[in-house]
Amino acid sequence: MNIIISNTAGIPIYEQIKEQIKAAIFNGELNEGDLLPSIRQLAKDLKISVITTMRAYTDLEHEGFVVSMQGKGCFVLPQNTNLLREQKLRVVEAGLLSAINAAKLAKLSEAELVDMLKLLLEEDNYD
Amino acid sequence: MINILELNHVNKGFDGFSLQDVSFALPTGFIMGYIGPNGAGKTTTIKLILNMLSLDSGSIKVFGKDNKICEQEIKEKIGVVMDQPFYVDEWTLLDVERSLSPFYQKWNSSKYSTLLKEFHLDAQKKVKALSRGMKIKLMIAVALSHEADLLILDEPTSGLDAVARNELIDILGIFMTDENKGILFSTHITSDLEKIADYITFINNGKILYSSTKDDLLEKYCIVKGGNGTLNPEQKKHVIGYREHSVGFDGLIDRNLLKALPKSVVTEPSNLDEIVVRFTMGEKQI
What we know:
heterodimer, A: mainly alpha, Arc Repressor Mutant, subunit A, 2 domains, 5 helices, 58% helix, B: alpha/beta, Rossmann fold, four-stranded antiparallel sheet, 10 helices, elongated
């Protein structure tokens, strides 16, 4: 797993760490039972403060992604795959809904909208 | 032991300068940056911790023990890096070891030679032939060779180039992978601390203005800017280090007071430097 911190992104560093670890869990790079890098090791490698790293890990623990075991480290918890899929589907739905609303404003017919989607899918080599 | 270092209501007076009611605590396992302008009292505080000066009132605890009563015991486990090494110029680095090791029960000779190699220091070289960056690394090598748990660094980065500063930050990071250690790091170059410090203690004119986590400090204040005449005198009072120029104003503000200001002002995150500067300059008009 890679973690890349940007100091100019305007997003707090702990937030960046959190999001990147979550992304690694979502895309299967990190699996149930995997050990996260130790807090102090990560702080050293990224040259950031221990407190910042702790905050990222504590947040991940509260959100149910990892569990920390005294003296052993932080482990990835099993994720509810149905729930994850459901969340992703909701994002897709929201995107499509806003496209439909925009199409109404542009007075696009249903057929034209579907054609447009098909065209975009082709360009994207979607499969 | 929760706090590796603790100062309680420390007072020390000199002619024309005094430390007043200085209190702060560094929890074990963390790095504290001790910041403030030149002459604020940083070195005086460090000398008091090391019992090189005696305090007028208050108490200082290192590893949970009084720094005067248990001085010997405490100093076995403190590593000190001052702006200049206190070794004789004519000593070679081997002489440094020969002269210092008898003072420490836990002196680890093989660690010393390993560290010299790691830091690219030639053991045959004389102290006076070392560059500033090398001298700092030598002092750190000595501190680590007697198994120090608490590092006290007084302005270690001043006069170092960017490469040497980066190396120093790396060394400190490795040191802190052990959760039983602690570092007090005084400096006026705050960019080095911006990343690695867990806690910040800010001193000005012998008084502590702030002592808590770095993240809280950076979240508490932000930079505010706007056009001339935007603020009424009442609102100006909220702005720390208010500066007015021909085409506008800028300053630092507590985020909680932002709502008292007109919507037209612009805000941006502050850095440690800006906080030190604004607090130090007070209400100065240019």
